[in-house]
């Protein structure tokens, strides 16, 4: 997630997988590195999430259950530009994976 925020042009149009703290709400879907940024909506430290395709598989209750939770997300990243204007450091759309990360899963990566 740090790389997406710091150098969005490197990942523009590429499929990415990242994890962070999810914010799920009306016109406020995003992922942040830390909980404080998620709570306070520090847009430049987050990446927007477009759930259009994901909504076919998950209903609102399932999405809302992941609000302020540590999640893993995979989709296509787009830097902010005329096609994808954003208050965030980019947007992930065409999301194919949006899951809760458990402590055991995080520990396996170390």
Characterise this structure.
It is a single chain. This protein is α+β, with helices and mostly antiparallel strands and 110 residues long. 24% of the residues lie in helices and 32% in strands. The protein has five helices and five strands, in the order ααββαβαββα. It has helices at residues 2-6, 8-11, 35-40, 60-64, 103-108; strands spanning 15-23, 30-32, 46-49, 70-78, 91-100. The chain has a five-stranded mixed barrel. A hairpin with a 6-residue loop joins strand 1 (15-23) and strand 2. The chain is globular, with a radius of gyration of 13 Å. The protein starts with a helix and ends with a helix. The mean pLDDT is 88.
Kindly summarize this structure in a few lines:
With 110 residues, the protein is α+β, with helices and mostly antiparallel strands.
Notable characteristics:
5 strands, 110 residues, alpha+beta, 5 helices
Task: Report the strand count.
Answer: 5
> How do the SSEs run, as a string of H and E?
HHEEHEHEEH
Q: Helices and strands: which structural class?
A: alpha+beta
For the biggest sheet, the summary is: 5 strands, mixed, barrel
Count of separate DSSP helical elements = 5
Indicate the mean pLDDT.
Answer: 88
**Cα-to-Cα separation, first versus last residue:** 17 Å
Extract low-pLDDT stretches: none
Radius of gyration: 13 Å
Q: Any chance you could write out the topology, listing elements then pairs?
A:
Elements: H1 2-6, H2 8-11, E1 15-23, E2 30-32, H3 35-40, E3 46-49, H4 60-64, E4 70-78, E5 91-100, H5 103-108
